[in-house]
Every structure is written in structure tokens, then in C-alpha cells.
Amino acid sequence: MPMTKYLPSKLSILTAIALVSIQSLAIAAPEPTATETAQPTIASLNAALKENPQDIDAYLHRGILHAQLQQNIPAIVDYTEVIRLDPNHALAYTNRAAAKLNMKDYRGAYVDYTQVIRLLPEKAITYNNRAYARHQLGDCKGAIADLRIAAELFRIQGDTYNQQRTLTNLKAFQRKR
């Protein structure tokens, strides 16, 4: 089965997300109130979770805030709660893997990136990141395999910049083998 089977649906999701974020769409919208433009804080998210302990978005955003503050353990706890509530939440796995990489938990990052690949097999950057975790674990052969897949996906997706960066890393990993 070609790896591009799911590419159109994943790209359409990403396109929809990108379109929603375009500020020009908000030209006809009324001016947002101060409450609507306020960024969530850890305290406001704690309050939201007190009201609704099942609020996946609150856990996710609180995890992101913890990660921005380099608070990896609380971030991992929040991402883990998102995953408990929604076992197929690819962004929570991705963010938790990044926090684990920051803590040098390469095995944990590898496991989480593998889950993201199971959920989103066309996401090139995930193969690239898993290659780094594999390399740190001493799995040079696996890292090279992941970089090859990442380079091909970047090529298919027309991302020549990241394709070239990946190919450079691939050559470096192959020399170290």
C-alpha cells in the first residue's frame, strides 16, 4: 500500500486549519472583546479543569504552556491526560515526545513518535524526529531508515528545504555507521 494513500485527507485537514488561521478572514468579523483575545494562563486552565476535568483542550493548552516554560514533567503529565482521554490524539503524542526529548528520555520519545506515525503515517517531520531519538538510542540503522522515509515524504510534499536538511542528516548518519 503506497504511503500516500492518506495524504489527500491529511493535507485537506491541514489546509482547513491553515485557512481558519488566515487573519484576512476576520476582516468582516466584529472586533473581539478583551476576554476573547486573552491568552489562556495556567491559572485559567486550572480553573477550567476544576469545572470540567474531562476538558481535553484545557489539558493540551496547559501542557503547551508548561512546555514553553521548560516545565517538561508537568507538560508530560498534561499530554498524558489528553492521551488517556483521547488515545488517538496525535498532537498530544507529538508534544509529549518533544518534552521527553528535552529530558533525554529517548526511549519514551521513540515510543511516542511511533504512535504519531501509526496515526499520521504521512507526517515527514515525525520520521525525522524519531530518527533523532533512534540515533540517540544507538539505533543507527533505524535512524537511517526513518530519515530516508522523511526525505521521500518531504519530496512528495514539495518541501525541498526540509528534504535537503534531512538528506544532509542522512549522509552524516551514514558516515557514522
From TrEMBL:
The keyword Lyase does not apply. TPR repeats lie at residues 56-89, 90-123. Keywords: Repeat, Signal, TPR repeat. GO terms for biological process: receptor-mediated virion attachment to host cell. PROSITE patterns: TPR. GO terms for cellular component: cell outer membrane. Residues 1-28 form the signal peptide. InterPro entries: TPR-like_helical_dom_sf (IPR011990), TPR_rpt (IPR019734), Ycf3 (IPR050498). PANTHER family: TETRATRICOPEPTIDE REPEAT PROTEIN 6, UDP-N-ACETYLGLUCOSAMINE--PEPTIDE N-ACETYLGLUCOSAMINYLTRANSFERASE SPINDLY-RELATED. This is Uncharacterized protein.
